[in-house]
Amino acid sequence: MIYWDGGEELHRELVEKLILKGLKHLDVPKLWEISISIVDKAEIQEINKEYRDKNEPTDVLSFPLSNPDEWEDNGIPIALGDIIICTEIAQEQADEYGHSFERELGFLAIHGLLHLAGYDHMNPEEEAEMRQAQRDILGELI
């Protein structure tokens, strides 16, 4: 189940479609919960400062609530975590990179999901693995 806070219906449809594809790719158990919040620059900067001690806006934040190594398909929903996306920054990055807002929004949603699933990009090997997973999930959808 996806819990939403903010955002337009069209954006929700795209993000939900990608999240569902991503969860299937990651082989997540059938019952799960994710919270997705769409925020502005001021709100994501406040969250980034409070939780990461970085007083600057960012494009996406993820807060895992469970350990992927312990995910079991035991009939109890798994709280995967929270994904917070700043659509203002998503639009700026889409303009900067010369692609659509939808492509950038989808990329950020999958990037956030992969962090919930234990992926990271702290070194070149992790980054390469995460980028490949992003390409695999996003594929032809956007």
Tell me the CATH superfamily. Answer: Metalloproteases ("zincins"), catalytic domain
Cα-atom radius of gyration: 15 Å
Mean pLDDT: 88
CATH architectural group: 3-Layer(aba) Sandwich
Q: Count the E strands.
A: 4
Query: Beta-strand percentage?
Result: 15-25%
Number of domains: 1
Oligomer: single chain
Q: Order of SSEs, N→C?
A: EHEHEEHHH
* Amount of helix: 40-55%
Please list the strands of the largest sheet in the order they lie side by side.
Answer: 1-2-4-3
Structural class: alpha/beta
Main sheet specs = 4 strands, mixed
Number of helices: 5
Principal-axes geometry comes out as: globular
Could you outline the blueprint of secondary structure elements for this entry?
Blueprint: E1 2-5, H1 9-25, E2 32-39, H2 41-52, E3 60-64, E4 78-86, H3 87-97, H4 101-116, H5 124-138
Parallel strand pairs: 1-2, 2-4
Antiparallel strand pairs: 3-4
Helix pairs in contact: 1-4, 3-4, 4-5
How is this structure best described in words?
The structure is a single chain. The protein is an alpha/beta fold and 142 residues long. It has a single domain (2-138), classed as 3-Layer(aba) Sandwich (Collagenase (Catalytic Domain)). The protein contains 5 helices and 4 strands, in the order βαβαββααα. Strands 1-2-4-3 form a 4-stranded mixed sheet. Strand 1, helix 1 and strand 2 form a beta-alpha-beta unit. Helix 1 (9-25) crosses helix 4, helix 3 (87-97) packs across helix 4 and helix 4 crosses helix 5. The longest helix has 17 residues, at 9-25. It starts with a strand and ends with a helix. The mean pLDDT is 88.
